[in-house]
Design a protein that fits this description.
With 368 residues, the protein is mostly helical. Helices cover 57% and strands 6% of the residues.
C-alpha cells in the first residue's frame, strides 16, 4: 500500500527485493586479464604535446655575477639547466614562457618592460638578453678552441715519417686516438689514396668496400675521426675523392654506402677486373662471352683454341677486340639499369659486331 500511495502522488518508488547471495568465482589468470585490458589510444591522441625543459649538468653562463643585471642573471641561471635547442625555443618565446595568461602578459609589457627600457637606455629585456647570450657563446667558442689546442699539444706522436714517402709529411693530416692519447701524422695524398682504395675494394666482380683505417695501426676509423680527417683534407692540398664524398653523404655508415652506390661499385669492380688479363675472372668472363656469341649465330665454338689463347697470348689483337665487345655488353646493365630498352639495343649492336670476329679464330692458331 505504501508503494501505491507513492505512485498516486507521482513519484516512482523502487521496489526492493532481497539480495541474492553471489557465488565466489575463481580468480582470472594473468593472460586473461591482459586480453581484457584495452589500450586507451583515444586518450593518448587527445593529449597535446607540452614543452618540458629537462635540466642537465652543462653550465651555459660563464660570465661573473657582477657583470650582469639581476634579471638577466636569473634568466641565464635558469638556462644553465637546458640544452641548446631548448635555449633557442625559450628565447624565441621568452614572453610566453614568462606569462601564459594574456592579461598578465599585457601588464608585463606595460609595467616591467617600460621600467626596464627607461632604466637601460631604451633597450628591451629581450634585446639585452640576446646580446649577453651572444657574448657568452663567443667566449665559450674561444675557450673550446683553446682547450682543444691544449689537449692536442699533450698527445703522444706515434710516427714522424709518412709510411709511403718515408719523409716528414709536408701537408700533414693527423689521426687522433683519445683513448691512448696519441696521434698519427700522414701525408694528405697518402691518406686520401688509402681511403679511396679501401672503399673501392672488390673481389673480382663482387664489390666489398672496407672501412677507412689508420694506415699505421691498421685500426678502423671512428665516426669522429672520419669527420676530423674530412675537415683536414678540405683544408689541405689534396682533393677529396668522389667515393669519400659519397661516404660522407650517407653519414659515414658503410652498409648505407654499399646500398646507395651499389651499381657504381659493381661497375668499378667489373672495369678494374677486365683491365687485368691475368685475372681468373677475366678469363672466365671473356671465354663465356665468346662462347655466347658463337651460340647466338649457331656456329661451332673452338673452345680449345680460345682457352689456350686467353692463357698464353692474352694481349693478342683479336682477343682485345673481343674484350672490348665484352666490356661494352656487360657495362650496359650497370650504366643503363633504369632504361631496359637501351640495354637491349646496345647488346644487340654488340652481337651484330661480333659476327665479323667469329671466322677469324685462325689468327690465334698462327700465334700459338
Amino acid at each position: 500500500m505504501e508503494n501505491m500511495d507513492w505512485l498516486i502522488l507521482g513519484f516512482k518508488f523502487p521496489i526492493t527485493k532481497p539480495a541474492k547471495k553471489t557465488k565466489k568465482r575463481p580468480k582470472a589468470k594473468a593472460k586473461a586479464k591482459a586480453k581484457n585490458q584495452k589500450p586507451f589510444l583515444h586518450n593518448l591522441q587527445e593529449q597535446k604535446p607540452t614543452t618540458v625543459y629537462a635540466p642537465h649538468n652543462i653550465c651555459f653562463n660563464i660570465l661573473p655575477f657582477r657583470a650582469l643585471p639581476k634579471k638577466i642573471w636569473a634568466i641565464l641561471a635558469f638556462m644553465n639547466g637546458i640544452n641548446l635547442a631548448e635555449q633557442r625555443e625559450y628565447i624565441k618565446n621568452f614572453v610566453k614562457n614568462s606569462y601564459t595568461n594574456k592579461t598578465d602578459r599585457e601588464i608585463y609589457d606595460k609595467s616591467f618592460n617600460q621600467f626596464w627600457t627607461d632604466s637601460n637606455s631604451g633597450e628591451s629585456i629581450e634585446t639585452v638578453l640576446l646580446s649577453y647570450i651572444k657574448k657568452i657563446r663567443i667566449l665559450r667558442a674561444r675557450f673550446r678552441r683553446f682547450l682543444h689546442i691544449w689537449r692536442t699539444s699533450r698527445l703522444r706522436p706515434i710516427n714522424t715519417e709518412d709510411i709511403v714517402t718515408m719523409e716528414p709529411p709536408k701537408d700533414p693530416v693527423y689521426i687522433v686516438d683519445w683513448a691512448t692519447k696519441s696521434k698519427s701524422a700522414f701525408e694528405s695524398s697518402t691518406l686520401m689514396r688509402d681511403i679511396t682504395l679501401r672503399l673501392l675494394h672488390h673481389d673480382g666482380f663482387f664489390e666489398c668496400p672496407q672501412e677507412p683505417r689508420n694506415p699505421y695501426t691498421n685500426s678502423p676509423l671512428t665516426q669522429a675521426q672520419m669527420i676530423s680527417v674530412w675537415i683536414q683534407l678540405a683544408r689541405s692540398k689534396a682533393t677529396a675523392s668522389s667515393v669519400f664524398t659519397g661516404l660522407r653523404q650517407v653519414r659515414w655508415i658503410l652498409y648505407k654506402f654499399m646500398t646507395e652506390y651499389s651499381l657504381q661499385l659493381q661497375l668499378h669492380a667489373f672495369r678494374t677486373t677486365m683491365r687485368n688479363p691475368a685475372h681468373m675472372d677475366y678469363r672466365d668472363r671473356l671465354g663465356d662471352f665468346i662462347n655466347f656469341c658463337y651460340e647466338q649465330e649457331d656456329v661451332q665454338f673452338p673452345r680449345i683454341i680460345f682457352t689456350d689463347a686467353i692463357l698464353k697470348i692474352p694481349n693478342h689483337r683479336l682477343l682485345k677486340q673481343w674484350a672490348n665487345l665484352c666490356i661494352r655488353y656487360y657495362e650496359a646493365t650497370y650504366i643503363h639499369s633504369k632504361f631496359p630498352h637501351k640495354i637491349i639495343t646496345i647488346q644487340e649492336d654488340v652481337l651484330d659486331k661480333s659476327v665479323f670476329l667469329l671466322r677469324r679464330y685462325k689468327e690465334l692458331t698462327r700465334s700459338l
